[in-house]
Fold these 3 entries.
Entry 1:
Amino acid sequence: MESLKEARDQDPYPFFADRLARGPVHWDEGMHAWIVVGYDECRFIQLNEDLFAHPYAELKGAADVYGGPKGVLLLQGEQHHAVHNFLLQHFTPATVRRYRTDFIAELVSARLDAVEGRTHVDLAAEFASVVPSDVIAALLGLDWRDEELMAKCRRWNSTMFRWTETFGEDEEAYATASAPPFPGVRRSR
């Protein structure tokens, strides 16, 4: 694989391992972008966002897909830091311990109960890929027990990130990702 762009629908980790073995930073001609795989180099980029282009902001249609120009995934600079600091207060060790007893234990048990007694279970699809979205839904006050709602949320999330994987170039993925996720509910802009 010559470019990360070729990794769509493939396991990208061999690509990353190969690049890391060759060094921490590489030009990817297929993506027309630098690929940074070294820890120290990635940390530098994350801590110096004013020096580097935002990964989503330049994608054609990003504001449509991510909820407008003030969508949380598009924020930069002080706006990003303000939201980040606001969210951090909801993830202190004491708060996370409270979440564990308030809802995480229940939702994990419910997901495990759903597969109990079965001889074949796809843990990735039926547990690992649903528990994080259940937790986020509970944090947002949504009913994580509502399977129809949660299926819609997961589809919506999947369409957004599927579009991101195309680097904003796939019109069909854009149309799907920018469509209203819940008919009758309008996204704020």
Entry 2:
Amino acid sequence: MTLPSSSHYTPSDNGKVLTISSLNHTVDDSYYSCAATNNAGVGNFNATFHLQINYPPTTEVIHTKSWTPTEENAVTLTCDITDGRPRSDIKKVTWKKGDITLPTSGRFTLSDNDKVLEISSLNHTVDDGHYSCAAHNEARMGDFSVKLHLLVNFKPSVSVETLGPVVEGESKTIRCHSQGARPAVTSVTWKKGQEVINVTTDSKYSGGTVETPSLTTGSVLKTDAGEYTSTGQ
């Protein structure tokens, strides 16, 4: 293809110098050749020059989809270099959570030329969020990747109210309060001391379920005295 004279392609010095402005690798990566014209005619287009344009990397944040991040554990995120020239010569990788650049100390550890980020001692209140990365090569720093939304699973916080004096023969409800969980609570377990209370088979008790977590006991006896605890899963 014969190049046109335009704002993108500017010849000078009687056509011997070609300036290409605003380089774009998608349109300007190519083989270039030239031919000169004199009174005898046009020479051959023999020698060619392969112009390869460096451009910044594009990235993607990935993590093991089969593993769910859980509070107090660690998670590893990888900044995958999906494009760019050169791709192998990455100078630096920058990580962000939302719009905040992440530190490279404390719970945040970088490895593999900053491409791998490990967050230890996960806490859903501070680590839930959108993570992105950007890589630097010889061309410049690339754009930040599409953000990966990290959600950290955490256990429910359960508390049981303290009871005052209980009159023998009366019915009594021990109230259970559960605050949040991810994923949602699917089962509730009550214990008296170390013994699990089976609310489905023991007619003395009612409640103690996900729908009704508080435990009600009918006709309290002296033998019912003890320490009651509740857990959710």
Entry 3:
Amino acid sequence: MSQLQAISVNATEEDKASILTKLDQMRAMITAQPEIAEARAERQSSRKVSPPTPIIRQTSSPPRPLEGNELRVRCSKLLVDALKCGDMPDGTLDPEDLAARIEEKLFDLHRGTTDKYMELLRSRVVNLRYKKNPALRENILTGVVAPERFAIMTSQEMASSPGVKHKSASDYK
């Protein structure tokens, strides 16, 4: 999905430009760090040799520690902030744990911090912050939707009703 497709048709040109500028700034900030650029180059060179086999977990073990991978730590922090962006419902699970499990599933699914990983992570953050669909965030926080399931949901599955599909920039917290 392109960046412009993620922005609603109802958004003004100024809103679209503002969102795209912020996305470009985030991308520049990530690629400007030498350790991230080195890790990306290493991943791309290793992919050409032989792709790693996917990790399939049959038990719910705690997430792998993110120390040493600043990009993954920041991505997890984005998810934590999105999970905490509103009132916390009764019976809320630990947002840090949920964010780590979502991030880990995306990381395992895409075998690293690829462009697709980043695209899906941003999509999850945007959907968690979407004011017109608070049920999605609440369902994740209360355990109705498993974080691993949320990580692989399509945009249609994340929408609570047909009217939710059209988002504007003012609908986010």
